Amino acid sequence: MSTLLQIKSSLFGDNGNSSTLSNEFVQNWLATHPGGKVVVRDLAEEAVPHLNAARVSAFFTPAENRSAEQQSFVDYSDFLINELKNADAVVIGVPLYNFGIPSTLKAYFDQLARAGVTFKYTDTGPVGLFADKPVHILAARGGFHVGKASDSQTSYLNTFLNFLGFQSIHYIYAEGLNLPTAKDQSLIHAREEIEQASAA
Fold first, then answer.
1. For 37, left (φ over 0), alpha (ψ -120 to 50), or beta?
2. Lower Cβ count inside 10 Å, N or C end of the chain?
3. Structural domains of the chain in order of their starting residue, each with its CATH number
4. Residue pLDDT, tens place only, 69-113
């Protein structure tokens, strides 16, 4: 049975454009993967704690020396890592906030990046320890940013996901959503891409 991990990062939950599109991806995926399982992580509904000194210290403390609180911090990170590790494919709904990703998604990513657990350092540079799998990114933007300096999302997401070992990254952009003259056509185009990508 295939498992799809859906990550929603819109502050507006299911009312956000990126969540709406990722929900449509899920429905299409289920139609082409009978018996498939969907695990949903809604970062607006259940916020992931941002890193602080206590959490980082816990990650670097040997297991036998951790306090109960430190172990709880590690257990939480391990849970998120295993959730991602056990998925066969991932879909991430990402709105563009002030030219970057939502802070909730950054907090989630920070819980995943663990030296010796999800990546390792080598003489030739860092190596990701996640097995590659399809990662579909539904990027919703109010304006037009693809190919411009204002799109810091794409390069950041590529860098971070590659760093963990993910190479099969597919973007579906829905841009101009705050412009009445562009929104409808942009959503039509995005939905056509969703139908194709979710069948894989």
1. beta
2. N
3. 3-197 (3.40.50.360)
4. 999 999 999 999 999 999 999 999 999 999 999 999 999 999 999
Rounded to whole angstroms, how far apart are CA atoms 167 and 176? 28
Structure tokens that stand for 78 in this block: 């391990």
Classify the phi-psi angles of 52: left when phi > 0, otherwise alpha if psi is within -120 to 50, otherwise beta: beta
H helix or E strand, kind and range, residue 111: helix 103-112
Q: In the structure encoding, which two tokens stand for residue 65, read together?
A: 């020396």
| Among 188, 178, 182, residue whose Cα is nearest residue 141 | 178
CB 25 within 8 A of CB 136: yes
Q: Which pair of tokens denotes residue 28? A: 């299409």
How far apart CA 66 and CA 62 sit, in angstroms, is 6
The gap from C-alpha 42 to its chain's centroid, in whole angstroms, comes to 11
Distances (CA, A) of 14 to 7, 42, 87: 11, 9, 22
Query: What is the rounded CA–CA span in Å between residue 25 and residue 110?
Result: 25
Tell me the helices (H) and strands (E) count for the chain, helix number first: 6, 7
Judge if pTM exceeds 0.85: yes
Q: Which two tokens stand for residue 89?
A: 């494919």
d(CA 176, CA 194): 18
Mark the ranges of the chain whose per-residue pLDDT is less than 70. Answer: none
